[in-house]
Design a protein that fits this description.
CATH superfamily of chain B: Coenzyme PQQ synthesis protein D (PqqD)
Order of helices and strands of chain B: EEEEHHHE
Number of strands of chain B: 5
Low-confidence stretches of chain B: none
Strand order of the largest sheet of chain A: 7-6-5-4-3-2-1-8-9
Oligomer: heterodimer
Radius of gyration of chain B: 13 Å
Strand order of the largest sheet of chain B: 2-3-4
Largest sheet of chain A: 9 strands, mixed
Distance between the termini of chain A: 41 Å
Distance between the termini of chain B: 9 Å
Number of helices of chain B: 3
Helix content of chain A: 25-40%
Mean pLDDT of chain A: 92
CATH architecture of chain B: Orthogonal Bundle
Chain lengths: 378, 90
């Protein structure tokens, strides 16, 4: 091989860095029905969920591959009867264990068992700052009160707590109260997460997209609170795609930092990637996590920059935003390999402003099993 | 403020562990990670929730060829910075 050919080959096949974190989607079962749920529209049925021993193997393989953290998510991860064994297996594999929970199924005994198994941190979701609107968004009566109790139990057990508030048109005006709630509940971190519009949230986009005025007020409120609460509360906040000029580096780039395993064992570059057509995502029951990460076509397809179309190709930001989100590109343009329309340079960028203009009063389509035409995994 | 009598330890939710895949040590926390330099790693390894800052400085002074006052100033500044980041409590 000539030096030139070798250089070209290197360009085509970038060196694969090890992943930093694993998102383990243990189940799609959940007592809540949030209309922006990040699970796929075709939810996996419980009978197809991986068993405890397989998850334990996935954790060992993830740690050996270079993962440092595992996010135990769902659905509601504590809906699994073996959640304590799963946490123990993750901790024994040496992973930093983060439980991402709706909190409504936690009680003192469960929290104590999880701590005993080696749980490091809890991220608790809230749907709004007050019970009535929160329960309406969650589609579950009494959920907010139980979340408050879950936060108290987590803090009483000495675990650090992050509050995750998904924000949108119908709760963004109560952001000051959400920030106050995070302080009251003893959270050290608050994630103010704008809805991302694919899957369930895309179906509810009209009801959820905020106005520009709402967004500007929220951004100012975050800046005020960050200054006022410095040293007490860390607030994570990112301007949402629909109001941005440049896309986010979704997952830090396809197959660069993170991998996800679905309830049925599909290994994914991001938890929403199953919505993309034309992929054969590796099955962790059949292959190793290392093979999936390093060798599988699914992980190689959008890794690096060689796959990029115009205007990403040759763009100075190609290795900053990595072309943005593949799921959003597919959802809005029908082409998963297109530049994310969140980029002002995308020929489809106008779609975002049009969606913002079309948003208004609309009812919710709540998530439910079987809504994707009974489409089960595999 | 961190002083000679402070007894620092890793904050709850923080874990020091080897990152063998990348040949380094890291401090892991909720959705974040710190990569300590060699000096910081030496200090972090000595945090056991029993040893005071003065005892940590004694330990390092016995092992490294540097004036004790210099080590004390460096260690105190480092722990103060880590405390402000929420990595260490005292």
């Amino acid at each position: 091989m000539t030096a030139e050919a070798a250089a070209m080959r290197q360009d085509a096949v970038p060196a694969v860095e090890p992943p930093l974190a694993l998102l383990a989607e243990l189940t799609h079962r959940c007592p809540l029905r949030c209309p922006y749920c990040s699970n796929p529209v075709a939810l996996t049925r419980p009978a197809r969920e991986l068993d405890t021993a397989t998850w334990a193997r996935v954790f060992r393989e993830a740690a050996a591959l270079g993962c440092l953290q595992v996010h135990l998510s769902g659905g509601e991860p504590t809906a699994r009867r073996d959640i304590v064994e799963i946490v123990r297996a993750a901790a024994e594999a040496g992973l930093y264990t983060n439980l991402i929970t709706a909190g409504v199924t936690l009680d003192a005994a469960k929290v104590a068992a999880l701590v005993g198994a080696g749980l490091d941190h809890v991220q608790l979701s809230v749907q709004d700052a007050e019970g009535a609107p929160a329960d309406r968004i969650a589609g579950a009566a009494g959920a907010h009160a139980r979340k408050r109790e879950a936060a108290r139990l987590v803090r009483a057990a000495g675990l650090p707590l992050t509050l995750n508030a998904v924000v949108h048109r119908q709760n963004l005006d109560r952001l000051p109260a959400l920030i106050a709630l995070a302080v009251e509940l003893g959270a050290a971190r608050l994630e103010v997460a704008h809805v991302q519009y694919y899957g369930w949230a895309l179906a509810n986009r009209e009801a959820l997209l905020p106005t520009r005025a709402q967004l500007d007020a929220a951004t100012a409120e975050v800046e005020r609170a960050r200054a006022a609460l410095a040293g007490r509360l860390v607030i994570d906040y990112v301007v949402p795609d629909y109001f941005a000029k440049r896309p986010k580096a979704c997952m830090g780039g396809w197959g660069r930092r993170f991998l996800a395993v679905s309830p049925a064992g599909r290994v994914l570059p991001c938890h929403a990637a199953e919505s993309l057509p034309g992929f054969d995502f590796p099955d962790v029951r059949a292959v190793s996590l290392r093979w999936a990460w390093e060798e599988s076509e699914a992980f190689r397809r959008f890794r690096g920059t060689a796959w990029m179309p115009e205007p990403c190709r040759g763009c100075a930001r190609a290795e900053i935003d990595w072309g943005g989100c593949r799921c959003q590109a597919f959802a809005l343009t029908g082409d998963a390999a297109a530049t994310d329309p969140a980029c002002a340079l995308s020929p489809h960028h106008h779609l975002l402003a049009e969606a913002v203009a079309a948003a208004g009063e609309a009812g919710f389509t709540y998530r439910r099993m079987g809504a994707g035409g009974g489409g089960d995994d595999g | 403020m961190i002083g000679p009598d402070s007894v620092p330890r890793l904050a709850r939710g923080m874990r020091l562990r080897e990152d063998a895949a990348r040949g380094r040590w890291v401090v892991l926390g909720p959705e974040r990670m710190f990569v300590p330099d060699e000096t910081a790693l030496e200090v972090l390894r000595l945090l056991d929730g029993a040893r005071s800052v003065a005892a940590i400085v004694d330990d390092l002074a016995a092992r490294y060829d540097a004036p004790r006052e210099e080590i004390a100033a460096d260690v105190t500044a480092l722990l103060q910075e880590l405390a402000e980041k929420g990595v260490v409590t005292a």
